[in-house]
C-alpha cells in the first residue's frame, strides 16, 4: 500500500465526516443566530430561549436527513470494503 492511497482514503473519510456533521450542525447554527439577534433586539436573556430552538432544529435535521446520512455512510463503507484487496495486495 502506497502512502498516496492511504492519504486518499483518509481525505475521503474526512470529507464524509465534514459533510455529515455540517448537515447536522449548520441548521442549528442558523437558528441559533436568528434567536441571538432576536434576544439582542428585545433584551431577553433567557437561556432556554436560545437552547430549545437549536435542539429542536438539530433533531428535525436528523429526522429529515437521517436516510441520506445513513446512505452516505453506507456508500463510504462499501467503498472501503471494495478497496480492501487493493490496500492489502
Which descriptors apply to this entry?
89 residues, mainly alpha, 91% helix, 0% strand, elongated, flagellum, cell projection, bacterial flagellum
Helix content: over 70%
- Radius of gyration, rounded? 19 Å
- The outline comes out as elongated
Low-confidence region ranges: none
How many DSSP E strands? 0
The biggest sheet amounts to: none
Specify the number of helices. Answer: 3
| Class derived from helix and strand content | mainly alpha
State the order of secondary-structure elements, H for helix, E for strand: HHH
Q: Determine the N-to-C terminus distance.
A: 7 Å
Proportion of residues in β-strands: under 5%
> What's the rounded overall pLDDT mean?
91
- Count of individual domains: 1
Structural write-up:
- This protein is mainly α and 89 residues long.
- It has one domain (3-83).
- It is 91% helix and 0% strand.
- It is built from 3 helices and no strands.
- It has helices at residues 3-42, 47-82, 84-88.
- It is elongated, with a radius of gyration of 19 Å.
